[in-house]
Amino acid sequence: MSTDFVSTRLTGWGLTAPSVARVATVAPADVAACVKDSGVRGVIARGLGRSYGDAAQNSGGSVLRLAGSVSDVVVDPESATVTASAAVSLDELLKIIVPRGFFVPVTPGTRFVTVGGAIASDIHGKNHHADGSFGAHVRRLSLLLADGTVRELSPTDESDLFWATVGGMGLTGIILEATFAVLPIETSRCIVSTVRCRDLDELLSEMSVGDEDHRYSVSWVDLLARGRSFGRGVLWRGDHARVSDLAPKLAVDPLRYEPRHLASVPPIVPAPGLVNLLTSRTFNELWLRKEPRRKDGQIKSIPGYFHPLDSIGSWNRLYGPRGFIQYQFVVPFEREDALRRCIELVVESRLASPLVVLKRFGAANRAPLSFPMPGWTLTVDMPAGADGLSELCRRLDDVVLEAGGRHYLAKDAHTRAESIVRGYPRLSEWRRIRDSVDPDGIWQSDLSRRLALLG
Ligand SMILES: Cc1cc2nc3c(=O)[nH]c(=O)nc-3n(C[C@H](O)[C@H](O)[C@H](O)COP(=O)(O)OP(=O)(O)OC[C@H]3O[C@@H](n4cnc5c(N)ncnc54)[C@H](O)[C@@H]3O)c2cc1C
Question: Is 42 in the pocket of ligand 1 (CB under 6 A)?
Answer without folding.
Answer: no
